[in-house]
């Protein structure tokens, strides 16, 4: 498991979890030795002290944030859309805002990637009975309380798939906002076969409630 752990970060958001944080960290260390444990903490108790003593990387956050916006760091996503995505959560009541790249085929996206993304979205649309366009967008806004409430399988590729589908099937409000998608800076680190396998796995497991 060490070779896997060296490639995995397990991230948790904490607030006043001193009675359980050591138990959870030790369980993670037992099942995936060598993994980085990253904690974003807003506690007033000893949670961050305990976590740091057990080897976790602790980021202190005050006050606790209401919205988490994700985006890839390759300059493909429009940073200027961040305020709009966050406002859709804060002011319009959505729990997830998916910044979809696929209103049309982006010039910056290779045809093979585009066909794969459209195909995966079509499968999810049928299984979840909701029009979906982009399961793999690296730019989204999430209500933090929703992220805290749901459990996601962090191990493995294609996590954005589950981060979209699990809130949807759990009854949270999901909104799609189309964005422009630009040429990347640098080379892609995606592993197509592994990503495709994990995409199908996450779609099926989420639909069947296995995770």
Structure description:
This protein is an alpha/beta fold and 211 residues long. It has 2 domains: 1-64, no CATH class; 65-211, Spore Coat Polysaccharide Biosynthesis Protein SpsA, Chain A, CATH 3.90.550.10. It is built from 8 helices and 7 strands; from the N terminus they run αβαβαββαβαβααβα. The protein has helices spanning 2-5, 21-31, 47-53, 82-90, 111-128, 144-149, 159-169, 192-208; strands at residues 9-14, 36-41, 57-60, 67-70, 96-100, 140-143, 174-178. A 4-stranded mixed sheet has the order 4-6-5-7. The protein has a 3-stranded parallel sheet with strand order 1-2-3, covered by helices on one side. The longest helix is centred in the middle third of the chain and has 18 residues, at 111-128. The radius of gyration is 18 Å and the shape is globular. The model has no long low-confidence stretch (mean pLDDT 92).
Mean pLDDT: 92
Instruction: Give the termini distance in whole angstroms.
Output: 21 Å
Total number of domains: 2
Characterize the biggest β-sheet.
4 strands, mixed
Can you write the helix and strand succession as a string?
Answer: HEHEHEEHEHEHHEH
CATH topology description of the largest domain: Spore Coat Polysaccharide Biosynthesis Protein SpsA, Chain A
CATH class categorisation of the largest domain:
Alpha Beta
- Total DSSP E strands: 7
Rg estimate, integer Å? 18 Å
Low-confidence stretches: none
Would you identify the CATH architecture of the largest domain? Alpha-Beta Complex
Q: Kindly name the structural category.
A: alpha/beta
CATH homologous superfamily caption of the largest domain: Spore Coat Polysaccharide Biosynthesis Protein SpsA, Chain A
Number of helical segments?
A: 8
Query: So what's the oligomer here?
Result: single chain
Fraction in beta strands: 15-25%
Judging from the principal axes of the Cα atoms, what is the shape? globular
Largest sheet strand order: 4-6-5-7
Share of residues in helices: 25-40%
């Amino acid at each position: 498991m060490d070779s896997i752990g060296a490639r995995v970060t397990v991230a948790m958001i904490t607030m006043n979890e001193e009675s359980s944080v050591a138990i959870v960290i030790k369980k993670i260390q037992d099942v995936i030795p060598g993994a980085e444990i990253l904690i974003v903490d807003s506690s007033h108790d000893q949670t961050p002290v305990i976590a740091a003593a057990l080897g976790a990387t602790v980021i202190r956050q005050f006050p606790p944030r209401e919205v988490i916006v994700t985006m890839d760091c390759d300059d493909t996503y429009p940073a200027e859309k961040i305020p709009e995505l966050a406002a859709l959560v804060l002011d319009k009541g959505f729990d997830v805002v998916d910044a979809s790249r696929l209103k049309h085929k982006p010039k910056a996206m290779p045809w093979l990637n585009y066909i794969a993304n459209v195909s995966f979205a079509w499968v999810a649309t049928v299984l979840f009975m909701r029009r979906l366009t982009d399961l793999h967008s690296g730019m989204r806004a999430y209500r933090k309380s929703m992220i805290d409430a749901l459990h996601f399988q962090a191990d493995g590729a294609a996590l954005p798939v589950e981060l979209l589908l699990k809130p949807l099937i759990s009854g949270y409000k999901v909104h799609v906002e189309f964005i422009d998608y630009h040429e990347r800076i640098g080379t892609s680190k995606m592993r197509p076969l592994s990503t495709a396998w994990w995409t199908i796995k996450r779609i099926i497991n989420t639909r069947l409630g296995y995770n």
